[in-house]
Please model this.
Amino acid sequence: MRVAGIALAIVLAVALQTTLARFLVRGTFAVDLVLVVVVYVALTFGPVAGMLTGTVAGLIQDALSSGIIGVGGLAKTVVGFLAGVIGTQFIVAQSLPRFVVFLGATVLHALIFMGLYALLDVRHFGTPYAAVGGQAVGNAVVGVLAFQLVELLPGAVERRRMQRTRLRR
Amino acid sequence: MAVLDLRQRSGYLFLGVVLGHILLISAQVSSRTGVPILEAVTFGVFAQVQRTVSSGVEGVRHLWGGYIGLRHVKQENDDLKRRLADAEIAVQQQRALADRARGLEQLLDMRDHSALQLTAAEIIGASSTPDFRTLTIDKGTRDGLRRDMAILAPNGVVGRVVVPTGRAAKVQLLIDRNAAAGALIERSRAQGVVVGTGEEQLRMDFVSEASDIVNGDVVVTSGIDGIYPKGYVIGRVEMVEKNGPSYRLILVKPAVNFSVLEQVLVVTTPLAAHDGAGVDAGARE
Model:
């Protein structure tokens, strides 16, 4: 059930990433939804789940882009594993620590991804500090909101149901 | 103890997965000819998902915009946009024809270059990662598309086909970091190569310091790359600066607004019919 949920989340993230990018400003989606899903899974289920989610999601993204298959996979695998380790070693239950983890994960992902391409002399990204910074903040905001939504939604629905029941009485 | 064991096992698993990735990357780097089968198959399968999601999104948009909103106004607007796009394509073709007629080369070459075969295609998806500037279109090899076919829009050049599958194709935009096209300044005929920067801007390289170029000059395709037909608008010169002793740094604003593209035209005319000499400058790699 958990595996099916994660698989569905990955497919949805890739589908949304490829679909929404067309409708947003400048044709680029400044948030990597797939990376958000990887870090979310890592913080929720631990390093192994984060690593395997990163592997699968990264390879799918690689296969859909024009780059070398495995570079994004490797970057997301490392990020998923390390985020999972941080999630098990530290208390990452508040918004601020989660924000920092998403932020760090995005920067690390960009470092590995762009570093590998530069190392292989296949693609050079120059000095995209602003782009990476913007994406890091975007990912962190979306990630923290996703956590808030998943955690607060069941309680809010329950409170609303209780209120309705009370009003009927 | 169990926790320690689990950590050790996850560590080994992590190393194994990382090693697997490195082997996968190494295999591709050593043999970079053609499209990897895994890429083509995955792209082909996922294009169907993109098509479905895109259809769903389009359906909702059409329902809202066409029925709940201003139905008649939208229909009229769509019709006008279509007619405007047709007119702009015609202007582009006339411009290309006029260029050809001007040169001495055209006096000697009596072939008729005017009739480009174009196939309209709908954009059904964008790049799965922000680091690549690609689009997915709903036409593929079944519609006669092949790798390296040029993609045009009413405003100008969009890019080229990089991964064609049966019913969809991936298009590398001209603004992608790995994209390039032979180009010339329309007014002074100064030649160079336009390359993508990954942003909404292009750079024109290899233009001699002695060339006559000013801001606002129109940059068009030169056709020497064997991919893009000659005379189609790439953009306008936005900045000209000295770059070393021999060359100039020229920034070009693309004529096409890539973020609002919905339909494009694929040039299905065989490469031999283009003006170029067949030198593949479409990809910098």
About this structure: Chain B touches chain A through 48 residues (CB under 8 Å).
